[in-house]
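Whether sequence alone determines local backbone shape is best considered at the level of individual chains. The sequence in question and its structure tokens are set out directly beneath this paragraph.

***
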Amino acid sequence: MKTKHRILSLVLILSQLLAYSLPAHAADSLIPIYSWSDLNNIRNNMSGAYILMNDLNESSAGYDVYVRNGGW
């Protein structure tokens, strides 16, 4: 019975360590979006994983360059 508890404890500890390490590695592979230009460049790498770092709206620099006629 003690052996089963030790094995179960080890499995639980390892699963928690794995769960906490996965997001750290995933965050390293995220491509940051800081500007309208960065957002526009997503089309060059559609399989990438992105994270928005700044609010992009009509007052953001580059809005008039990339958002024309009410949309993309």
About this structure: The chain has one domain: 2-66.
